[in-house]
Amino acid sequence: MPSMAPRCELPALAAASLATSPPASDTERESVTRGALAVPDTDIIDSPPRTETQPAGLALGGINPHSALIIVDVQPDFMPGGALACTGGDEILLGLEWLLAQHAFDHVVATQDWHPAGHVSFASKHPPHQPFEALEFYGHSQTLWPDHCIQRTEGAALHPAIDWASCNAIIRKGTDPGIDSYSAFRNNIGPDGHRPATGLAGWLRDRRVTDVHVCGLARDVCVLWTAEDAVAAGFKTHFLWSLTRPVTYETDDDTRQRLSDLGIAIVDI
Ligand SMILES: [Zn+2]
């Protein structure tokens, strides 16, 4: 059952608490991913006229009653000055605020990185290793991060500059002390070799969502993984590029290529 988020009184989905659909196996995921390659690289998005209050460069398009907006990890710790800052992370706040104010989406989901202290992804847990080094976890490479988004700290809150009232559900991820979680849909690989589902795919299907629009932080990590898993779960996926920022811009070419390879629409709203 959903639990209540203490900070903003919105229904929160604790990671894996709504696992109404089984996690896709790696074989299934590969199959879906390959299938997506037939989708055109870009979509033609019909955009309505801009309003006077609309920030420059932003326009809505391609949204229907079966569309959901997924806002990934817009939290102070990912902003400049935060524990794990994304380059220009705060630059998306104005556009995101405008987007939410349009009430264009019937379904809005936010994710919240929500780690217990001493989480396995923290470099401080693995001395003498330093942040941004990689270690092998459960047979797969894992980047070590600075301590960030520790439960109930200010840095882990949903960003206070955003009005989250229109958000229908919150996925808290990374709550397992031994498994990291980038994607809104599934944890990273755990000790049993599987990626447990968060329940988001089932939540969306129950509401007849067919299209997801993803934005937030970080472009090259959690938003990208969310987009990849959205495709694997069968959702038509739109990547709101201008409402994301990366840990480092050096990854942007690779991120665009990955999205293109998967047939994910890159939308510069
Ligand atoms: Zn994290």
What does this molecule look like?
This protein has 269 residues and is α/β, with parallel strands linked by helices. The protein has 5 helices and 10 strands. The strands form 2 sheets. It has an 8-stranded mixed sheet, sandwiched between helices. It is globular. The site of zinc ion has 6 residues, from loops. Residues 113, 115, 121, 148-149, 174 line the site of zinc ion.
Name some characteristics of this structure.
269 residues; 10 strands; 8-stranded mixed sheet; Rossmann fold; single chain; alpha/beta; binds zinc ion; disordered N terminus
Could you give the order of strands across the largest sheet? Answer: 1-2-7-4-3-8-9-10
What is the CATH T-level topology? Rossmann fold
Assembly state: single chain
Give the ordered list of helices and strands.
EEHEHEEEEHEHEHE
The CATH first-level class comes to Alpha Beta
* Helix percentage: 10-25%
* CATH homologous group name: Isochorismatase-like
Number of domains: 1
Name the bound molecules.
zinc ion
Distance separating the two termini: 35 Å
What is the architecture at the second tier of CATH? 3-Layer(aba) Sandwich
Q: Main sheet?
A: 8 strands, mixed
Name the structural class.
Answer: alpha/beta
- Structural shape: globular
**Low-confidence parts:** 1-52
Into which percentage range does the β-strand content fall?
15-25%
The overall pLDDT, averaged over residues, is: 82
Count of extended strands: 10
Rg calculated over all Cα atoms? 17 Å
